[in-house]
Amino acid sequence: MKIRHPAWAGQFYPAAAASLQHAIDSYLMLAKPKQGAGRVVGLVSPHAGYTFSGRTAAAAYNQVKDEPYGVVIVIAPSHGAFIEGVSVYDGDYYETPLGRIPVDKARCAALAESAANIHLSAVGHDVIGDRAEHSLEVQLPFLQTVLQDFKLVPLVFHDYSWENCRQLGEAITDVFDPDEVLIVASTDLYHGYSYEECRRKDDATLAAIENDSAVDFCHGANSEKYMACGAGPVAALKLVGEIWSLGAPRVIARTNSADVAGSASGYVVGYAAAILEKKEHH
């Protein structure tokens, strides 16, 4: 059995199961309750340490609380490992202090079959030396809290060319159905040393998430017009929304590390939560 053990417990989030559960429950209570009328197919959620972005992530996860999802795709950026195309985990489980999540091996294999750029691999998932990816892992305790039984399709990549994002988005719509799946795009926003620039850049990026086409958002992020370390995951999610005629993600919460910490000086990172819904037709 191949298990991806937690690498960031005790750093990005509490290591003890009881403390972790208490923290998540507290964030969910403080965050915005369910906003939409339709079935949520996609979320955009941040991946910083929970003390900074936990409440914003909780706003996203409150939107799917107790809903039935058979499978969850988490699309995350790689901050360290070099990945050819997109890496879909080839193991059996992803583990957190809250337990093990089974990987949907059949769907992972089907994705890899569906597109030449998607590879079954441990690259970007496994710990290499002292490097391990956090952007996927930090989403999982929230998912374990708000959903009951689900299988995981974990994806990591950093090539945000439109071609790579397009193939990924199209493969997801080939293999999955909008009535069974939840797709989580993991991203933070502005990174830098100016609070004012953080506000400006996040305004532009969030407007683009809501209003740009997937291809325009992708090109805008690559030209640094927009700033999101998970711009590729967001572009892929936006394309899925277009193919399935769901429209674009809608931003429901935003903040930044300076506002959370109560200090506008120093390094600042932006965070937001957004939802992609399938509207109910009566």
The main sheet comes to: 9 strands, mixed
- The coarse silhouette is globular
Rg computed from alpha carbons, rounded to a whole number of angstroms: 17 Å
Helix and strand string, N-terminal first?
Answer: EHEHEEEEHEHEHEEHHHEHE
Unreliable sequence segments? none
CATH class: Alpha Beta
Please give a handful of descriptors for the protein shown.
23% strand; nine-stranded mixed beta sheet; 12 strands; alpha/beta; three-stranded mixed beta sheet; Protocatechuate 4,5-dioxygenase, Chain B; 282 residues
Describe what you observe in this structure:
This protein has 282 residues and is an alpha/beta fold. Helices cover 36% and strands 23% of the residues. The chain has a single domain, classed as Protocatechuate 4,5-dioxygenase, Chain B (3-Layer(aba) Sandwich), CATH 3.40.830.10. The chain has helices spanning 17-30, 50-62, 105-114, 140-146, 162-175, 195-211, 214-222, 231-243, 257-261; strands at residues 3-4, 39-45, 71-77, 86-89, 93-96, 99-102, 118-121, 151-157, 181-186, 191-192, 250-256, 268-278. It is globular, with a radius of gyration of 17 Å. The model has no long low-confidence stretch (mean pLDDT 95).
